[in-house]
Structures are given as C-alpha cells and as structure tokens.
Amino acid sequence: MTEQQLQAALKKFEELVREQSERSDRIKADKEYLDFDKLDKIIIGVCGGDGIGPIITKESARVLEYMLADEVKAGKIEFKVIDGLTIENRIAKMKPIPDDVLEELKKCHVILKGPTTTPQAGSDMPNIESANVAMRKALDLFANVRPVKIPEQGIDWTFFRENTEGAYAVGSKGVNVDDDLAFDFVVTTTEGTQRIARLAYEYARKNHKDRVSIINKANVIKTTDGKFLNLCREISKDYPEITTDEWYIDIATAKLVDEKRRRDFKVFILPNLYGDILTDEAAEFQGGVGTAGSANLGKRYAMFEAIHGSAPRMIDEGRGQYADPCSMLRASVMLLSHIGRQEKADLLEKALDICMFDEAKLKITGRSDGATCEQFGDYVMETVKKLSE
Ligand code: IPM
Ligand code: MG
C-alpha cells in the first residue's frame, strides 16, 4: 500500500462517517408516524419490477383492487401504477431508483413492489445498488417484518429485521485500498436500533407473544453487534411481561431446524444481514420463499414485497405466466393491515390459507402442468367472495 492509497482510503472512510452521522441525526429528529385515519385518501403505488415481478404484482394488485373496490369508487383509496423500476431503465439511468421514479414513489403512502433484479458485483451488469436496498434507504423503511407460520407444527414466528443499517448501510461503498486489501463496513446507530427494538416489543405486547429473541454475533462483531444487543436489552426492560432471550446467529440458525425447540421462538429482532439470511431459512420451512411476504415499514412510508427475487430464469424459459403470486398476496395482507383495513386483511389471509393449504384446488408448480398466476388470482377472489357471502 502506498501513502497515497492510504490517504484515499481514509478520505473515503471520512465521507462515510460524515454521511452516516448525518443520517443518524436525521432519523433521530424524525419523530412522527403517519396516521392513516387522518388521511382523506390513501394512495397505493403499484410497482412491478423485473422478471416475474410485473406478473405477480399485477395479480396481487388485481385482488386488492377487487377487495377495495368500494373505497376506490368513493375516492378514499387510489391505485397508482409506477413504471420505470426495471433493470433496463435503472442501467440506462445508472441509478438504483431513477429520480422520476423516486418522485412518484414519494407521492404514495404505501407501495406494493414486485421483485427487482440486483446486479451482482463481478457480473457483466454495471454495479448499481439493489433497488430494494435503495428504496429502504430512500424512504427510511427501517423495519422489515416477515411472518412465517406453520400451524400444524405450532410455528408462528415474526421476524423484525433491521432494514437500513448493519452490513447494508454502506454495502455498496466498501473500499478497495489496493489490489490486496478491501474493507466493508457495518453501521449501528442508537436510534436505528432503538426504533426496530421498540417496534418488535410493541408488536409482541399487542399480539400477546411471550418471547422476544435478540439475534446477534456480539462475541465476535463486538462493536456494532455489541451496541445492537445492549440497546435491545435496555428496551426489553420496558416489557417485563415478555421473556427476552439472546442467541448468536449461528446457533439460532441451527435451532430453527430443531423440531423440539423451534416452536418456542415467537418474535425475533435481528441486525440486517442476519435477518436476511434467517428469514429465507424460515420461509423454506413454510413452503419456500415463494410463499412469504414482507413489510418494509418506516414512519412515513411503507413498502410491501415478496421475500424472493425476480426469477429471470422463469422468464427466459417462457414460464412467466406460471409464477406463484402467493408471496405478493401475503404481502398484500400486510398492506391491508397497515392501512387499517384489518377485517379485509383477515379475509384475504383466510382466503389464502384455504387456497394454499386447506382446499388447494389449484396447484402452482411454476410450469405448464400447474395453474397460471392469473387462474390463482381468480381462485383467491372467488374464495374471498364466498367467505364474504
Ligand atoms: C431480501 C433480498 C434483498 C436483501 C436483496 C435482493 C438485495 O434478499 O429482501 O431479503 O438482501 O435484502
Ligand atoms: Mg433476502
């Protein structure tokens, strides 16, 4: 390493410290949560994404529009289609979210978003940041809430994944000091941790969940995970009726496979990267990532999405129309609940349980031997209709 390389690396680090310190101040100052009851009209943005994204998003939006038709007619809810979050457009503009798209997103209160393709470092695509990650940051969607349920095994988990910090905060701004040495950075802020912990404990209290598990690797990643763990512990003291336990991410990953032990888990709080990994594992027990929805919540905005990717291979092989919309429909349940339409959320959830498990008249296989995405959407709507008669 030359002196010049050292200075260049230090300068980059200085920029990151300034940027993250400003962000920390900003999120600390931002106190108010949006109150949906006070809005004259709720605007739901529908953003298709790439690959199978537009197909499964369109289907879920169709189900939502069906369920909210009266309120749309009365002018209380508006659906707004937002184009331009495709990989082609993002590459053309060299931005994870093109400016005009972000402007449109900011005019909405909640967003239903399809999977978007993430260029991987080392691929032949330019190295732009993931649109998910960029949107979570741009709209400060600090909580990634991911439920996983397997009723017959007594599993009912809710993951509260911190969504804007940890290894993701400056994940696209690591430093290659020279040909031999590279750094990435992990970021933990006080407000960033307290707000996710508070949300998780409030959820546990409201929903009578008697256990919260704090996931960390504070034995090794001492500074940032240590801070995360300590702050969560502090918050836990305000919830004495809830048992708090602490798990290192490695053993937590193992315990999720332990059939005797795993049903004891209820609510998890996790730093970003551990949350990313553990929620894919958890979703796999439930029937795969295709069955899991996810809410990205901030104080002002909220975005609802699948937990899986855009499955470009299905499109390349001409199987797009057979894509499974269940993840986006599960995300739609969370959207309905978030905007205060709890009865409709319960109705859609019940219909999905019937269509996916109890009755399961149509099977989605991802291929032509299974139902199409649209047929499944029709099936869900028929079931909703039957349940409401
Ligand atoms: C998720 C995804 C994203 C993440 C990817 C697509 C960047 O895996 O939502 O879990 O890592 O957060
Ligand atoms: Mg993931």
Q: Which terms would index this structure?
A:
389 residues; alpha/beta; 10-stranded mixed sheet; two-stranded antiparallel ribbon; binds 3-isopropylmalic acid; binds magnesium ion
| Largest beta-sheet details | 10 strands, mixed
How would you write the strand order of the largest sheet?
Answer: 2-1-3-12-11-4-5-10-8-9
SSE arrangement, N to C: HEHHEHHEHEEEEHEHEHEHEEHHHH
Strand content: 15-25%
Structure classification: alpha/beta
The hetero molecules present are: 3-isopropylmalic acid, magnesium ion
Measured distance between first and last alpha carbons: 73 Å
General shape:
globular
The number of distinct β-strands equals 12
* Rg over C-alpha atoms, rounded to the nearest angstrom: 21 Å
Structure description:
The relative contact order is 0.14. Helices cover 45% and strands 16% of the residues. It is built from 14 helices and 12 strands. The longest helix is centred in the N-terminal third of the chain and has 27 residues, at 3-29. The strands form 2 sheets. A 10-stranded mixed β-sheet has the order 2-1-3-12-11-4-5-10-8-9, sandwiched between helices. Strands 6-7 form a two-stranded antiparallel sheet. The mean pLDDT is 96. It is of the alpha/beta class. 3-isopropylmalic acid (IPM) is lined by residues 118, 130, 132-133, 276, 307, 309.
Write the layout of secondary structure elements.
Elements: H1 3-29, E1 42-47, H2 53-67, H3 69-73, E2 77-81, H4 87-93, H5 99-105, E3 110-113, H6 131-138, E4 143-150, E5 155-162, E6 175-176, E7 182-183, H7 190-206, E8 211-216, H8 222-236, E9 243-248, H9 249-255, E10 267-270, H10 272-286, E11 293-297, E12 302-306, H11 312-316, H12 326-338, H13 342-358, H14 373-388
Parallel strand pairs: 1-2, 1-3, 3-12, 5-10, 8-9, 8-10
Antiparallel strand pairs: 4-5, 4-11, 6-7, 11-12
Helix pairs in contact: 2-12, 2-14, 7-8, 12-13, 13-14
3-isopropylmalic acid binds at residues 118, 130, 132-133, 276, 307, 309.
